[in-house]
Amino acid sequence: VGFEVELSTKGVVIAPGQEASETVLLMEPDWSAVAFWCEAVALSESAHITLLGFKEESLQGDRKVIQYFEPLGVQYSFTDQGLELKKVPSLAPGHLIYNLIGEPDVAQALVMSLVFKRIPFEINGLYTLRLKETDRITALEEVLNAFGVQLESTSSSVRCLSYPKLFKKPSVAFSTYEDHRVAMSLAPVSVLFDISLRDASVVDKSYPEFWKHWSSLK
Q1: What is the pLDDT of residues 42-93, one digit of tens each?
Q2: Is 105 annotated in the active site?
Q3: Of residues 30, 80, 105, 204, which has the active-site annotation?
Q4: Cα–Cα dist 110/34, whole Å
Q5: Which CATH number fits domain 5-215: 1.10.760.10, 3.30.110.40, 1.10.630.10, 3.65.10.10?
C-alpha cells in the first residue's frame, strides 16, 4: 500500500503521517478452515469438494493439514480453480501420532475425524489449545463424552487408544463454547449423527459464510 517500513531485530517501525496508496491486494484464503472440509470428506462414504483460491505454494503453516488427513482417506490435488479434496479407499491405520505445535488450529477437526473413524491416536504440541477462545481440550473431552468416548489429556496433548463398541447418540444440543472452531468441527459429524448446536453463529468470527457453504453440499 506504499508505506515505508523499517525492520530491525527489535521489531517493525512504520513512520507516522504516511498515506496509503490505492491498490488491489490478493489475499490468500485461510488454510486452517480447510481442516473442517477435510473432516467432512474423511467422515463421508464418498465426497468430492473443490475449495476455490487455494494454491499449492503457501507460507501458512496450516497448509500441512491436507497431509495430516491423507491417512484418513482424504486425497488432495491442485487445479486452476483451487484445492480438490476427494474421498478414496484407505486401510485403517493402526495408530497415528501427530505433533501440531505449529498448527494447533486444525486439532479439533483432526480429533473428531480420528475418533469417528475409530483410529487410535495421540496428538502432541497442543500447548496453546487451552488458552484459545475456550479451553479447547476440555471442550473436546466434553463433546466426545456425549458420544461415549473418553479422551486422555495433558496440558498439551490428547489421545484415544480405544473406543466403545457403539457410539452413543447425542440427545441434547451441543454448546459451541463461544468458539467458532468448536462449531465448525461438529458440523461434519452430522454426516453420521443428527447434530444440534446452540449459538451456531459463533462461526462469524473467522468464517461468516461457513453455514452457507455447508448447506451447498449435496
Answers
A1: 999 999 999 999 999 999 999 999 999 999 999 999 999 999 999 999 888 8
A2: yes
A3: 105
A4: 11
A5: 3.65.10.10
